Automatic annotation (TrEMBL):
InterPro entries: Ccp1-like, Haem_peroxidase, Haem_peroxidase_sf, Peroxidase_I, Peroxidases_heam-ligand_BS. It comes from the Eukaryota. Its cofactor is heme b. This is Plant heme peroxidase family profile domain-containing protein. It comes from Salvia splendens (Scarlet sage). One of its GO terms (biological process) is cellular response to oxidative stress. Belongs to the peroxidase family. Ascorbate peroxidase subfamily. Residues 161-360 form the Plant heme peroxidase family profile domain.
């Protein structure tokens, strides 16, 4: 028994040396390698040392602590997929110039929130309900089906991203990214929005909010109407004015909203589909020109709705509008905070605290093949063994100049071999 214990300890120590330090705990043995054990079993190198069938069965049942079960997934979005989806959204914005409609999509999914209703999803808000036809047909959502069509291929590609997160991600990205960043050399457009993600989707159209929760463009009493709608969401006068500043992006089309001219000198040639009337001359650039143009009212080709004009007529609204017209940095700061708050309204998060994409490290370069790193202790692998390991590596599509996304399968191979040795010692 003493020699058996010594052999066992030696084998276990060898396994520890062969694994990266981050994977030497007991929990690490439940990590699922990128290559299945089934494919490793057919490996020429392992075929000589793989476990007997009864030992393999013991492995699969977890009796010695190894499991091939998939790690549990949360009910909401996968952070890595969401981060990749953001890059696809940037490409979409770059080719389709759809910044305004993406902002509107996120806003209209979140803007149905009612702070006086506690239950989810009855309270409305950012829950992905806008993907259903019954809500898309609400009068205030005219044209948003086009935004959904643009995003659906991205959602199909990243199936572990919720619609609720995708809508808000697209809205924030549209604010942050300069529509001409590929020529300007900078992605800096509007302010960076302090977003968090993890929103849960509603499951069916029966969970959509009733029509009438979104603001109108031309109500009889614009100031009272804006306060009725936005106060119901839990927002204040400063946030109402700051969010109104997003009208610096986009155009109003009379065939959709009933407001605006069919085209102007600023919109007749696009970019994107021509037509409509914009609030600003550079209607794809996020800045504070919306407040400047409303204040001056000098250009008949620029749109001013009753809910825009009231921002310089109501005393409380005017205080902030004057500030933003004079100070773009102040506008950017207040807008970013208001946008983030709006995007969270009514949402149910999983995990409960949400997560930030900024906290997810970028994937580093895959590690290259270095056979010597699989040596045990002070003993260098023989050239013959290095060649065998390299053959295994190349058998999975890798080479010294073409690293695989993960080399951990090699570590798993070695652990399995050690476990096989332990198994044989115990049996004998």
């Amino acid at each position: 028994m003493a020699s058996l214990s010594a052999a066992t300890a030696t084998a276990a120590a060898a396994a520890t040396r062969l694994l990266p330090s981050a994977y030497t705990s007991a929990a690490s043995l439940s990590y699922r390698p990128s290559v299945s054990l089934g494919s490793l079993r057919s490996s020429p190198l392992l075929s000589r040392i793989f476990l007997p069938q009864n030992s393999a069965r013991r492995l699969s049942t977890g009796r010695i602590g190894y499991s091939t079960a998939s790690p549990p997934k949360c009910a909401a979005s996968d952070p890595e997929q969401l981060k990749s989806a953001r890059e696809d959204i940037k490409e979409l914005l770059k080719t389709k110039f759809c910044h305004p409609i993406m902002v509107r999509l996120g806003w209209h999914d979140a803007g149905t929130y009612n702070k006086n209703i506690e239950e989810w999803p009855q309270r409305g808000g950012a829950n992905g309900s806008l993907r259903f036809e019954i809500e898309l047909k609400h009068g205030a959502n005219a044209g948003l089906v086009n935004a959904l069509k643009l995003l659906q291929p991205i959602r199909d590609k990243y199936s572990n991203v919720t619609y609720a997160d995708l809508f808000q991600l697209a809205s924030a990205t549209a604010i942050e990214v300069d529509p001409f960043f590929w020529t300007s050399g900078s992605e800096a457009g509007g302010p960076k929005i302090p977003m968090k993600y993890g929103r849960v989707d509603v499951s069916g159209p029966e969970q959509c909010p009733e029509e009438g929760r979104l603001p109108d463009a031309g109500p009889p009493s614009p100031a009272s109407h804006l306060r009725d709608v936005f106060y119901r969401m839990g927002l204040n006068d400063k946030e109402i004015v700051a969010l109104s500043g997003a009208h610096t992006l986009g155009r109003s089309r009379p065939d959709r909203s009933g407001w605006g001219k069919p085209e102007t000198k600023y919109t007749k040639d696009g970019p994107g589909a021509p037509g409509g009337q914009s609030w600003t001359a550079q209607w794809l650039k996020f800045d504070n020109s919306y407040f400047k143009d409303i204040k001056e009212r000098r250009d008949e080709d620029l749109l001013v709705l009753p809910t825009d004009a009231v921002l310089f007529e109501d005393p409380s609204f005017k205080e902030y509008s004057e500030k933003y017209a004079a100070d773009q940095d102040a506008f950017f700061k207040d807008y970013a905070e208001a946008h983030a708050k709006l995007s969270n309204l009514g949402a149910k998060f999983d995990p409960a605290e949400g997560f930030s994409l900024d906290d997810i490290p970028s994937k580093g370069q895959p590690e290259k093949f270095v056979a010597a790193k699989y040596s045990t202790g002070k003993r260098e692998l023989s050239d013959a063994m290095k060649q065998k390991i390299r053959a295994e590596y190349e058998g999975f599509g890798g080479s010294p100049d073409k690293p695989l996304q993960s080399n951990y399968f090699l570590n798993i191979m070695i652990v399995v071999a050690v476990l096989a040795l332990l198994s044989s010692l115990i049996v004998n």
